[in-house]
Amino acid sequence: MFMVISIHDAFTSGGSATVNFQLSTSAASNHSSPVVLWQSGVLAFNNALLGAGKSFIFRIPKGALRYLRVNQIVAGAALTAGSFDAFITDNVDSYIGQ
After folding, report:
1. How far, in Å, CA of 19 to CA of 73, rounded?
2. What is the pLDDT of residues 8-62, one digit of tens each?
3. Which CATH architecture has domain 2-89?
4. Half-sphere exposure of 59 (CA within 13 A, CB side)
5. Which of 33, 2, 15, 3 minimizes the C-alpha distance to 75?
6. CA-to-CA distance for 16 and 46, rounded, in angstroms?
């Protein structure tokens, strides 16, 4: 299974924002004691990485528990616009970003 994080509306920032997407897992529905399975790393804000139509596609690592969650961690400055979707798929060969 693969996780796709797809950016639909370009992110904008009034300052030097950074973004780090994380996929975490937990055995509990309230996501207590989450374990980070994957992260994009801290990305300096720019449209080459965070523009509309960009995607992060990766295999869900072994060790996933019952619940999964995608977090967007913003630091340095606030994001003023932007949107993304995250979903699980078994076939990324036919996936085309929106």
Report:
1. 6
2. 988 888 888 889 999 999 999 999 999 999 999 998 877 777 888 888 999 999 9
3. Sandwich (2.60)
4. 3
5. 15
6. 9
